[in-house]
Specification:
244 residues; 6 helices; five-stranded antiparallel β-sheet
Length: 244
């Protein structure tokens, strides 16, 4: 059962999450303690505007975040997405739609929610000879001259340097990598990232593309890796393809 950490003082939100293991939790404390640790997804109540600043903190640790309770105004939605939220929904969202969006986001952030984490090069105690970014590729991994994408381990590298991406940014990059140097339409990208059941808008897509460029491009304002194909979609411009 998926574990949902609900950062809110409103226990009525739990009624919309009966099919999940949902718990009300407090915000992270100043000493670093995070009650949402171990959750598959954080549902963050942003009716208190001060909580929007928490989104980037959760996203920075790779934890999927849905912001709930916003006004629905364009500026508020963008504010949450800019901070790193994977989705932003109204507090009046139906139980069915909320559950669908949660499953869609968790599904693309981890192949198996119950699977034990794969040993990673990010682990401080990684033993010599264990997994490396230059190991042989496995299914849905990609190695280009510009970067390496290891889908099974949810890792991205630029040379010997690891790159931190949110689950949404990672899914977007993988969707582009599946068609290297080819145009991936807006429709195909939103379907690949948010799923057919939880389609997002082009506006949401543009925000996440910008975040991805800010992380990967040397000059985000003049991108050379993630290119816009006006009126069509985006293209990952890469060389030296090796894929599994």
């Amino acid at each position: 059962m998926l574990r949902i950490a609900v950062v809110s003082t409103d226990d009525s939100l739990l009624r919309s999450l009966r099919e999940f293991d949902a718990q009300l939790v407090a915000e992270p404390s100043r000493n670093g303690a995070d009650p949402s640790q171990g959750a598959d997804l954080v549902l963050l109540d942003v009716r208190e505007t001060t909580r929007v600043g928490l989104i980037r903190e959760y996203a920075r640790h790779g934890r999927p975040v849905i912001a709930i309770g916003g006004s629905g105004r364009r500026e508020d939605v963008l504010r949450c997405l800019e901070a790193g939220a994977d989705d932003c929904v109204s507090a009046t969202i139906t139980t069915t739609e909320l559950a669908t969006r949660i499953r869609s986001i968790v599904r693309r952030s981890t192949a198996d929610p119950d699977q034990q984490p794969t040993p990673s090069v990010f682990d401080d105690d990684l033993e010599p000879g264990r997994a490396r970014h230059d190991d042989p590729l496995v299914l849905d991994d990609y190695r280009f001259a510009e970067l390496t994408i290891l889908s099974g381990r949810h890792e991205v590298w630029r040379g010997d340097n690891p790159v931190e991406l949110t689950p949404t940014e990672f899914s977007l990059l993988v969707a582009l990598a599946r068609s290297p140097n080819g145009v991936v339409t807006h429709h195909k990208l939103t379907a690949a990232v948010w799923g057919a059941e939880g389609m997002s808008s082009r506006r949401h897509l543009r925000v996440h593309v910008r975040h991805l460029r800010e992380t990967l491009e040397r000059e985000p304002s003049s991108p050379t890796l993630i290119l816009t194909e006006k009126g069509r979609g985006y293209r990952l411009a890469v060389t030296a393809l090796e894929a599994a």
